[in-house]
């Protein structure tokens, strides 16, 4: 006997009422794309759950991959048999003995096929008794069992499932539209991307770099961060913006206390243009209140002035330690702390204004003409696609 299915349970999607179909369709696409290199397996969607038909494939590595798909609450290996007592007993015995580290168990039967002659509660006892009689070293624990053996007797057959393996939760990526993530090489913006994806938003990224002040390795770091994020969704397109000329001009003509604010406003203007061209309806940053100079209320007010797009700031109220915890959990932390310079750190003034006045920023900007440089910068944006299936060497080849 062997497991033929992986059962996928929906998380929050189950609550989404009339829109449920949109969410489950998206989830099915995302699961299919995650396993597309294993053509023999099939992904089947039902109203309240999804199955992966294994067709002889080992379930463990597939479960491991699917755990990072948003919209999945939990996964279990499953065996399907006819609604027939002997077959169910044999399958349950296999499931119990196959599970690792299990000493105590509990049987939970759910009978939706009312033609099956034994009631759920009664069947728990029948099956529990059978398992105890045919094994050694196991006991039943109805309160805190090592394993809850679920038996679902449905019209289309009986499913016996192994332990529940918790997955990423959230909503399927792509079910809540798209955002343009301002992705630096720091700790915060990848976490912002991850949290936005968790709410079902598909992410494209924009990265500003300033060669030769920032190196190819700094750019590689951003590609590596994006690749890490693809684990939770689709491939990610990165719009790489050559920012050197604009930054140099800002540095030359804007009083230093204000150059950081103006630089951020330039980033917003460029990001908005890219989003508009790509049909993306929002921007996302890794800002959180009170961390550094550009992240005060006054600063955000001044920076936000140049865009009408919603700017999502998923980290806005988070403490730095909590942000670091998430970045460690999603394996972006070690990449983020690689010591390569970012365009903002290269040109950062000694004492940026923590409370920039909007009127002053406008006055300084209006005294100069940035339009040609902005247009030139936009013309030279390069798009790099970080594919979720790509191998390490393929990334190196991108550089
Ligand atoms: N070079 C860059 N390219 C793209 N976005 C950037 C860049 N630098 C900064 N940003 C965006 O501006 C936000 C604020 O940047 P800042 O350097 O003030 O903060 P941070 O807390 O160090 O953020 P991070 O850790 O994400 O770099 C970043 O989270 C990111 O969204």
Describe, in plain words, how this protein is organized in 3D:
There is one protein chain. The protein contains 15 helices and 15 strands. The chain is α/β, with parallel strands linked by helices and 399 residues long. Strands 1, 2, 3, 4, 5, 6, 7, 8 and 9 form a 9-stranded mixed beta sheet that branches. Strands 14-13-10-11-12-15 form a 6-stranded mixed beta sheet, with helices on both faces. Helix 7 runs antiparallel to helix 8 and helix 8 packs across helix 9. The longest helix has 23 residues, at 256-278. The structure holds adenosine-5'-triphosphate (ATP).
Strand content: 15-25%
Radius of gyration: 27 Å
Largest sheet: 9 strands, mixed
Distance between the termini: 49 Å
Average pLDDT: 90
Count the beta strands: 15
Order of helices and strands: EHEEHEHEHEEEEEHEHEHHEHEHHHHHEH
**Which ligands occur here?**
adenosine-5'-triphosphate
Q: Note the overall shape.
A: elongated
Low-confidence stretches: 390-399
**Share of helix among residues?**
40-55%
The helix tally amounts to 15
Helix/strand structural class? alpha/beta
